Amino acid sequence: MKKVLVLGASGGMGYALVQELVQRGIEVKAFARSEQKLKALFGHQELVKICTGDIFNLNELLSAAEQVDTIFQSANLPYEQWDENLLPFFEKILQVAKTVGAKLVLAENIYAYGRSIGSKVTEDTPKRPHTKKGEIRLQVEKRIKNSNVQALFAHLPDFYGPNAENTLLHITFKNVIQHKKSLFVGSKKVAREFIYTPDGAKALVNLALQDKAFGQNWNIPGYDVITGEEILQIIREINGYKKPVFPISKGIVKLAGLFDPTMREVVEMFYLNEDPVVLDGAKYEREIGPLPRTSYQVGIKQTLEYMLL
């Protein structure tokens, strides 16, 4: 792996992927819509070439993918666009990968697994999505597996980390750093799983460097499960935060959905806050090596420090 394209490079996982790849001396083409944001994030890095464009524009994607051997897909679309646009988007990515002869590394969510089975899910756990979004993600997976593109699928839990703004925990963190009253999505008493984006990026790159990883699914769990109360205790120990944090219930999200199309779509996925799906990473550790696992104490501290820059 000598030169790669990172789609969605200005997002949380995309940013972490670019940083991890550069640290390993790999040339990166960082693709996103905003040139201003890409320059702010990567303009000082010699191994990064900034590529701006529309992820729906095939010619712009093809131009960005010239001479790359691997494409990391970490771009995403707003929920309300999934029905109409998600499959066509991945068709374009497949076409680009075929045209340039690149391998495909997909940072995937856990929606296709469906509801919790009461224990950790492995890569062999049958995918039984019960939501519209889970069904779409499974359709995407099947479509890519039926193509002749070498691809690997890495399932990761919800993100947090530097530059990871479109995340559940960012909703809490953004007011915490200003010592204002904040919000927490879901019950603060339910233990669930989050992954620190630099850990996820390291695992993804480790997989991409192994030919045997392609054609397979991989689960990349976080450090451990953690409750909202435990997260808030860590925050209070880090910066002395003393303001109250109010839980956002499913009912509140439904109410917000009357006025906000994104919130309408969030309601469907709220089950993950009530009965979380937790990933088993034994396959990765058995076949690749130790999972990158940053403690929540360290990960949250570094995330809050980044947000204060």
Please summarize what this structure is.
With 309 residues, the chain is α/β, with parallel strands linked by helices. The protein has helices spanning 12-23, 35-42, 58-64, 82-100, 132-145, 168-176, 197-208, 228-239, 250-257, 261-266, 271-274, 282-287, 296-307, and strands spanning 3-7, 27-32, 48-52, 70-73, 103-108, 151-155, 158-160, 182-185, 192-196, 217-219, 225-226, 245-248. It is 42% helix and 17% strand.
Structural write-up:
The protein has 309 residues and is α/β, with parallel strands linked by helices. Helices cover 42% and strands 17% of the residues. Strands 3-2-1-4-5-6-10 form a seven-stranded parallel sheet, with helices on both faces. A three-stranded mixed sheet has the order 7-9-11. The model has no long low-confidence stretch (mean pLDDT 97).
